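Notes from the pairing session

We agreed to fold both candidates in a single pass and log them together. This is the raw record for the first candidate, unedited. Please don't reformat it; downstream parsing expects exactly this layout.

Candidate A
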Amino acid sequence: MTLSYKIRLVVFVSIFFAGMAGMFHSPVQLSALAQQPTGSIPTVTGTPSGMIVAVNMDLETVPVYSGPSSYLYPAVGVLLKGQEVPALGISEDGNWIQVSYPGVPGSVAWVYGPFVTTRKFGNPPVLEAPSTSTPTQALTPVINQTLVAAFVTPVTPTRLPTFTRPAPLVIATFLDDESTTNRVPLGLLIFGLGFIGGFGALISFLRGQ
């Protein structure tokens, strides 16, 4: 056996065993060595202050406003029960919290502090209230006079009664009649006539006897 023949035999045996190893190699092991795809779960990230608030669990929804007041500013949306949002700042009185709220002008809104619970503490800055679009004192009611006239019953003006002062009351007074002081009393006159008549009747009766 020559040297060249031995070399060929060694090369052939090496190629043969290499091919056999490739045939029995498991493809599952190859897939196991591949890199598995990874994903990312979106998380709520706060501001540099790091404060995050969540809606109280006893409330279904909480309204948010364009400013720190439910009377001076309109509602721009709601937060759901348990929803967590980054806090951007607090109002000057400390009762309202400005939170990140995408979809509205400026992507910020204000929520009433007692409606939320602090999940992650931080030091949010104190923010000034935004200006209102229309001052409340500038609103003046507009009355439709035609509509008012349809429901108001017209009143026909009448002359008021005039007061006429009555004539002064005259009180009658009785004065003593001085002209009758020298006359004979009427009673005495009647008594005298009766006495004379009786006396004449007595004389007539005695003459008849």
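Candidate B (folded immediately after A)
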Amino acid sequence: MTTIANEFNVKVGYSDHTEGIEISLAAVALGATVIEKHFTLNRNMKGPDHKASLEPDELKKMVNGIRNIEQAMGNGIKIPSPSEIKNKAAARKSIVAAKCISMDEIFSSENITVKRPGNGISPMLWDGVIGSKAKKNYMPDELIEL
């Protein structure tokens, strides 16, 4: 299925004739956009397809599972979730004093470090901080300011 989708740049589906819902869910996780699955009101009815078909409660579980997988797969655009935004400052880190730093002392990897929370200068700016002069005295763990 994935080979066909990649080789021909097309959407793919899966025709599931297995018992249960697991294979259909796996197909969706692999990119199937259409699932064909037999459905019956009662597996004990006469006919060739009823035994391997889903009953209403199973179909509902399969559809719910598919929707959960679709949501988990996302749309390919990475944006912070509401819970990530709420925890952003607590999860990220800031550049802080590793020890007491005197005014006019040069920031170096020996006197600054990185700690939580992330409400100060980002560690992504580390190289820009190193070599700068302290504009004030700092106590250990105090947020560095430029």
